Structures are given as structure tokens and as C-alpha cells.
Amino acid sequence: ARFSEMKSGAVGAGLVVLLLLRGECMRGVPRRRRYTPDWESLDSRPLPEWFDKAKFGVFVHWGVFSVPAWGSEWFWWHWKGEGLPQYKQFMSDHYPPGFSYADFGPQFTARFFHPDTWADLFLAAGAKYVVLTTKHHEGFTNWPSSVSWNWNSQDLGPHRDLVGELGNAVRKRNMRYGLYHSLLEWFHPLYLLDKKNGCKTQHFVRAKTMPELYDLVYRYEPDLIWSDGEWECPDTYWNSTEFLSWLYNDSPVKDEVVVNDRWGQNCSCHHGGYYNCQDKFKPESLPGHKWEMCTSIDKVSWGYRRDMAVFDVAAEREIISELVQTVSLGGNYLLNIGPTKDGLIVPIFQERLLAVGKWLSIHGEAVYSSKPWRVQLEKNTTSVWYTSRETTVYAIFLHWPENGVLSLVSPVTTSATQITMLGIQKDLKWSTNPEGGLLIYLPNLPLGTLPVDFGWTIKLTGVK
Ligand SMILES: *[C@@H]1O[C@H](CO)[C@@H](O)[C@H](O)[C@H]1NC(C)=O
Ligand SMILES: *[C@@H]1O[C@H](CO)[C@@H](O)[C@H](O)[C@H]1NC(C)=O
Ligand SMILES: *[C@@H]1O[C@H](CO)[C@@H](O)[C@H](O)[C@H]1NC(C)=O
């Protein structure tokens, strides 16, 4: 008996009774729907609710690339894969001849890594989930993987289980925990062999990818698997649908786990759980499928780099604007920082994260658990974004109008309409606009007395 259609309680109860009468239900417990290892079946799984409600997460790129900490987390590839002159020069200028990428390993000490300090910061940033790189394309695992011999954080470098330690700290604070995992490894000999065979052999997948993914799920029971590094081979090479059907049917996280869409060539934006599409993807209009924008405070790199300049760092207004636009368009916003090799988060990243947290402490009501409204972007402006919660509508505006009067075209007022501003106690004065919509008279407060400097929210009840 397969329970593919069990939707509402009433229908479900009816089916249970029916099946009990027909003796098709083992011990009276309806069997869960089972997914088959194909995209049609896997794509039909409803996304666990927590993810859409969460809206905001922190992404952490940390690994051996945090040791050279120069250029970007793609350091090894730029140096040895592409042979870019500036990377070769950097190495010959600063390291002895023959120094290999593996020689950076012991310097990844994580000496000052205090998972509780990180988790406190992410919580104060307003994050509802945290995603850590368990293994980037370099292949170094931030947990004691038994299939990453001498290239993991227990045998080398920190001599600690970084994935486990951060997970405990994050969960203690009721945030969800996500694991980034790269399917490919740039220079793994078995991967190179499979690639030479046109992705027709699976030596690497059998020896590495699959054992790692199952190990991560059993050890850490992640809420989210953020897959990456899929683009060189088809999903049939990666056995993605086999893994996902196990994950959804039989794994210890089958009910709550969420995955993204990077599970094989041409898969992203088409198959999987929610969609990332490309890095920093930003749709123009409301997509038909749950999505997440991932982006980095350092606009140039995901991993920490010492050559970061202040101009490369996203400003608070850019971050808030993107968060607002993303949530209004039904997405989640995953904002990245790269810690240093010794486990510190530099103050400029702390400052940006805390700014988001401060903004969310006042405007969270318009963000968390919100749904897109019937209009996303106010027709008459480029800077008023709507969200909603049940019958309440939120208009988040990013520019303070010069005359102090905000014009909204889309909401239709009724005799019950009430208008307030988040962070301000009293109701606002408003009137209907003869040209359509309404005019809202913003509070005339002395400079510096508004609860935030940028991005304000009008709360409308009793509108249509
Ligand atoms: C991939 O899945 C197929 C079909 O279940 C199986 O025969 C094969 O051994 C799997 N390969 C790996 C590397 O797990
Ligand atoms: C992915 O798309 C490209 C371009 O459309 C195509 O050449 C390639 O064969 C596709 N790969 C797979 C695995 O479908
Ligand atoms: C649209 O915006 C312009 C410029 O801010 C303003 O003059 C006009 O009244 C607005 N139109 C409506 C219908 O609100």
C-alpha cells in the first residue's frame, strides 16, 4: 500500500480506516510515501516547512584555502589547475621552492576556533540556519572522514572535528545546521581517471563521494545538504537520485532534511529540493519554485583572503536591500563569511552580520515565516518591496521620500485599514490617493532617532 495521495487529515483518516479494513496497513501505521530514484518522483517531495520559514542563514567557507588566504578559495585551482601567473608569482615570492598545496595543511590550525562564539554571532545576526563547508573542491574534510586519509581535520591541522563542534553549538541555540559538500575534487586521481573515461566509470564516486555523503548524514544528521561541484558530470555519474531516494525514504533525517539543486550537469534550477541556480542568482520576478540566494560579504571571494579591500565588502545597505528583495520574491538569503585559518571571524564580517541582526530584530516580523504578497515590487518605485503574513501586508521601503510622504499604489484600503511602522509605537496618518492607492505620512523624527538608518517597514492591516 502506497500512501502517495494522503493530504488532508480527513481524507488521510478515511484512507487509514479503509486500508485497515482491507488489512493492507502494517500494525495500523500508514506507510510513508516512498520515493523512487528518478527526478520525477524526487521532485514531487514537498519541501519541509522549516526552510521557507527560516528566510535567513549564514554560510561559512572554511578549509585549507584559508591558509594561503589570497585571491579566493579557488587558490589551488588558479595556481595549479589554470597556472595563473599571479598565483605562481605569489608562491615563489612567499614560499620555498617545492612547497605544495598539501604543505598548507598543517598551518590550518583553527587554534582560536570557539564554536560557541561563532554560533552566538550567527544567532545575533538573526540567522535561522548555518551552512558550513564540510569539504570544498580541494578535498580536505573538516571532519574525521575515513575516506580522506591524512587530508582531514582530525589527522592534520586542527586535530578536531570542526563539523561536529560547530553543529553542536548551532543546535544548542535552536538554529538549523546545513552541510555544504563538494561532489568533485579538482585533483583527486580517481576523479581525474573517471573524467578521462567521460564520467562512464565511478571509481571516485564509489571510493569517496558516496561514503562521505552517507557518513555525513549518519554522523551529523544535517537539516540541509548544500551540494556543489556537480557540473562536470551528469547526475547518473554521481548516483544522485539513488542517494536522494535513500535520504528521503530511509535516512535518519528523512522528514526534515532539505537539499539544493546541484546534483549533476544541467540539474541546477531544474531538479532537487530548493533551487540555487547560479551563485548569487537573483530572479527578476516571483519564481514558481522555492529558491535561495547565496552571496558573500566579501564580493570577490567566499573563503577568507588577506588581500580583501574595504571596497570589496558589501555595504550594510546592499545586504539589507538584497535580503529584502530576496524574501519578497519568495527566496531565502544565505550570506557568506570566510573565517581565518585560526578560526577567527574578522571584525568587518562581525559588524555586517550584527547590522543584519539589528535590522531583523525590528523587521523580523516582515521577514521570518512571511509569504510573497500578490505584488512584490511597488509599481511606482524601484524600492518598495512587499511581504505578507496571513492578512497583514508589509511594505519595506529602501528610500525615504524627500517630502516625507510615501505613496503606495497597490494596496486597496478598506474601512478597517490600519497603518503602522515597525519600531515606532503610534499609528501613522494616511489618506487615499486620488490617483490610486494611498499616501502615508511618515513620522517626522529628529535625525538619528529612527530605529534603523536604512530599510523601513510599513505594516498594513485591513487592506486588500
Ligand atoms: C549507483 O547506483 C547503481 C544503481 O543502483 C548501482 O548499481 C551502482 O553500484 C551505484 N554506484 C555507486 C558508485 O554507488
Ligand atoms: C547539458 O547541457 C549541455 C548544453 O545544453 C549539453 O551539451 C549536455 O549534453 C547536457 N548534459 C547532460 C548530462 O544532459
Ligand atoms: C509615482 O511616483 C511619483 C514620483 O515619486 C509621484 O509624483 C506620483 O504621485 C506617484 N504616483 C502614484 C500613483 O502614487
Describe the overall structure.
The longest helix has 18 residues. This protein folds into three domains: 31 residues, no CATH class; 328 residues, Alpha-Beta Barrel (TIM Barrel), CATH 3.20.20; 87 residues, Golgi alpha-mannosidase II (Immunoglobulin-like), CATH 2.60.40. Strands 5-4-3-2-1-7-6 form a seven-stranded parallel beta sheet. Strands 8-9-14-11 form a four-stranded antiparallel beta sheet. By secondary structure, the protein is an alpha/beta fold. Helices cover 28% and strands 17% of the residues. Alpha-L-fucosidase is responsible for hydrolyzing the alpha-1,6-linked fucose joined to the reducing-end N-acetylglucosamine of the carbohydrate moieties of glycoproteins. Homotetramer. It comes from Suricata suricatta. GO terms for molecular function: alpha-L-fucosidase activity.
Q: Any chance you could write out the topology, listing elements then pairs?
A:
Layout: H1 9-21, H2 39-43, H3 49-54, E1 56-60, H4 75-81, H5 85-94, H6 115-124, E2 129-135, H7 162-172, E3 176-182, H8 189-196, H9 203-220, E4 224-228, H10 235-238, H11 240-249, E5 258-259, E6 291-296, H12 316-328, E7 331-337, H13 347-363, E8 384-389, E9 392-397, E10 405-408, E11 413-421, E12 429-432, E13 438-441, E14 456-463
Parallel strand pairs: 1-2, 1-7, 2-3, 3-4, 4-5, 6-7
Antiparallel strand pairs: 8-9, 9-14, 10-13, 11-14, 12-13
Helix pairs in contact: 4-5, 6-7, 6-13, 8-9
